[in-house]
Amino acid sequence: MPECPACGSAQTVKNGKAKNGTQTSLCKVCGRRFHPDAKPVAHSEATRTPILDAVHDRMSLRGVQRVFGVHRNTVIRWNKKGAAEVRQTVSVCLTPPEELVVELDELWTFVGQKKQPRWLWLALERRTRRVLAWVLCDRSEETAFTLWDCLPLSPEQCLKATFCTDLWRAYDEPLLGVKRLTRRGETNHVERLNCTLRQRLGRLDRKSLSFSKSDELLEASLTLAFHRYNLSR
Ligand SMILES: [Zn+2]
Question: What spacing in Å lies between the alpha carbon of 169 and ligand 1's midpoint?
């Protein structure tokens, strides 16, 4: 009998046919169900690029599977691997401190079900429109501090820069001592980015079935999305 791909045991038995008619096996030791005749497919860069482009322009994972014939789990694996390879955000902000305007905002989303909300905190640099930092967590002051710590700015840059936020009180403590504006319209650019994100990433949509099922995948998609976005700026 074929060896189990998970634990290597030879104690496997036939386990009926899959939907597409191929034979499946079952490992009696670890319970893994597998296709003994399946051969791993190596996808070339030329195949991967359009697929990943499509995923980052709103195509659903199941849509990719239907159109390109690549299994959604394969695409998920590429996403996780890609996210591990790219940096989260820009590491250095090159705008002169006097001209530095950072817009901060939060965007609501959820994982699995609406009862499990997540808040995506964003820091956008107005001149280059690049995302300086982002955090995915709750809406508390603690997360505001985390975002503040993630900013790639020196204390000198922070003192000269202007920070624009809404009136959410979680910003009060972290932004104590720096120039802060809460006027209407000062966060227009970051709010526009929120719209772009919701438009491009199906999983950030407010009313859809394509929401994230796990934090890990949401983080991976966002990492790649911001990486692509910053590269395009
Ligand atoms: Zn096994």
Answer: 53
3-state secondary structure of 124: strand
Q: Cα(75) to centroid of ligand 1, in Å?
A: 25
How far is the centre of ligand 1, averaged over its atoms, from the C-alpha of 42 (Å)? 24
Closest CA to 102 of 168, 170, 175, 195: 175
Q: pLDDT for 205-215, tens place per residue?
A: 877 777 888 88
CA distance 169 to 218: 26
Homologous superfamily of 97-222: Ribonuclease H-like superfamily/Ribonuclease H (3.30.420.10)
pLDDT score for 203: 83
pLDDT of residue 88: 64
| Distance between Cα 12 and ligand 1 center (Å) | 8
User: How far is ligand 1, taken at its centre, from the CA of residue 28, in Å?
Assistant: 7
